[in-house]
């Protein structure tokens, strides 16, 4: 198990794969950020208080921006919908690239990586569509747990008891979503080990079988890489908050830190899927 974790962690550092991840994350971000940037630039660039507003926004500036944002909400909403659609369209491409890289004995060059991603796109797209069913069920169950916790909170005397029930329900809902996401990644790993299989439902069901057969390796790999990635990303996010984007050096540093956070999240997802593919290959 240790060898699977170490090999997956190192293999997930393939620069071509991470560069493809960064590009696919950056495109939807730009699609949403450009209208917001134009809105902020039109309101703040020509202000006599621009240097001070670049460091912190006062109440008056926030009120003015809220008014303008309300008028421009349809355009920003359209940009947000376009960014979401582009993210969903690129997600199977990224999953296909990870599957192709995990299956290859050596690191793939860009052409082979993109060819493998495109070849896997239909199966990964079907898995993305099927994900709506288990994720929707998990969200529905999580909302039911939160409603039950709120109902319990109205019957207790101490506010702390109500708060603890809500926190427990929220934690259970988050764990449900993570568990469903694990089964979906296990399904992708099952599809990666059998190119003949085209059904997303059958692949997901086989992923459930992988979880039932090897619960220890599957859960530990997923949990370790998730915790490591989130802790590292949170640490970088705290560092990013300490860098005010005032001046060219600070702006470049803030941009690099933001991209590094995206790469860490990408490494986390790639490493998890690499580990699950290796476990699935052992089960075959």
Structural commentary:
With 284 residues, this protein is mainly α. The protein has one domain (2-283). It has 9 helices and no strands. The chain has helices at 2-11, 15-44, 50-55, 59-103, 110-153, 159-193, 200-213, 215-241, 248-283. α5 (110-153) packs across α7 and α7 packs across α8. The radius of gyration is 22 Å and the shape is globular. It starts with a helix and ends with a helix. The mean pLDDT is 84.
Outline the fold blueprint:
Layout: H1 2-11, H2 15-44, H3 50-55, H4 59-103, H5 110-153, H6 159-193, H7 200-213, H8 215-241, H9 248-283
Helix pairs in contact: 1-9, 2-4, 2-9, 4-5, 4-6, 4-9, 5-6, 5-7, 6-7, 6-9, 7-8, 8-9
Characterize the main sheet: none
First-residue to last-residue Cα separation:
16 Å
SS element count, helices: 9
Please mark out the parts with pLDDT under 50 across 5 or more consecutive residues, or reply none.
Answer: none
Tell me the helix content: over 70%
The helix-and-strand class reads mainly alpha
What key phrases describe this protein's structure?
single chain; about 280 residues; mainly alpha; 9 helices; transmembrane; membrane
Quick take:
Keywords: Membrane, Transmembrane, Transmembrane helix. The protein is mainly alpha-helical and about 280 residues long. The protein has 9 helices and no strands.
